[in-house]
Amino acid sequence: MADIENPVPVMDEAKVSSVGDAIRALIEDGQTLLEAEIAYRKAQAVFGLGEAKVIALLLVLGLAFGFFTLLALVVGLLLALAFYVGVWGALAIVGGSLLALTALCLFMAVKRMDNAKAGLLGGDEAP
Questions:
Q1: In 3D, which of 104, 82, 103 has the Cα closest to residue 92?
Q2: Cα separation of 125 and 93, whole Å?
Q3: Residue 97 and residue 99: Cα distance in Å, rounded?
Q4: How far is CA 45 from the centre of its chain?
């Protein structure tokens, strides 16, 4: 009769093992989530560095076009065009061409910077 008045709780082994399995599965899911997050951040960093290299290259090319074209074409074209359209006409043609090339390269660099920023921040504008 003492056993009926003070029942001893019996641990069900099926419940213990299922709780243990659930905890193990939860830990494995957490590890998988952590590994996926690390892989995502690595991919994000690789993307950012790749875009930075292209942006830097485009900026250097833009500046090179702006400088070397100014140096070579200004002298050559001003002398050649001055005979046909006058000094001021030659200056306008050469200056406009240089400005167009410089603006094109800088515009492309700014566009790639915006795409890289949108891609890194998770925006919808990334290609």
A1: 82
A2: 37
A3: 5
A4: 8
- Joined together, the tokens standing for residue 13 give 């082994």
Query: How far apart, in whole angstroms, are the C-alpha atoms of residue 45 and residue 56?
Result: 16
CB 106, CB 62: distance < 8 Å: yes
Token reading at 10: 């019996």
Give me 97's structure tokens: 């061409």
**What's the CA gap between 37 and 49, in Å, rounded?**
18
**55 pLDDT more than 70:** yes
Q: Minimal CA–CA distance to 58: which of 97, 112, 11?
A: 112
Tell me the C-alpha distance between 123 and 13, whole Å: 50
Q: Render pLDDT for 81-116 as a digit per residue (tens, 0 to 9).
A: 889 998 888 888 888 988 998 899 999 999 999 998
As separate numbers, helices (DSSP H) first and strands (DSSP E) second, the chain gives 2, 0
